[in-house]
């Protein structure tokens, strides 16, 4: 029943699109974004059961619709759904600065969190008095807890 309903939905979308470039004429609308977000994965992904994918591939205008949007808005790869390759043929795993960038991002995050903690008062630095060694003044919170 579910596959039958999905096939019917695809057929109705195909009939509504007809020979137009987009559902409401020559420029895309929010409906086009929504429909594309459902059709493109169905068209491009490898699925364990390909019944619905085969039906979509039989609806040539919907296939052309997806290919047109892919090439128009994702031109770096001619309609294939992959991001552009890193420059000079390096893959992400082979990037010589990957480890440095990871370390820097962790350090920046750590500094930001510690800075926030100081500015919001979660952490504060108190200087010890000139009292005897080993004796530190009791913070206000510690006095309240003792009572």
From TrEMBL:
- Please indicate if the UniProt record lists Membrane as a keyword: yes
Tell me what this protein is called: MTX1 protein
- What's a BP term from Gene Ontology annotated to this protein? mitochondrion organization
Keywords noted in UniProt: Membrane, Transmembrane, Transmembrane helix
One term under GO cellular component: SAM complex
Source organism's superkingdom? Eukaryota
Question: What transmembrane ranges does the database entry give?
Answer: 103-125
Q: Where is the Metaxin glutathione S-transferase domain?
A: 6-69
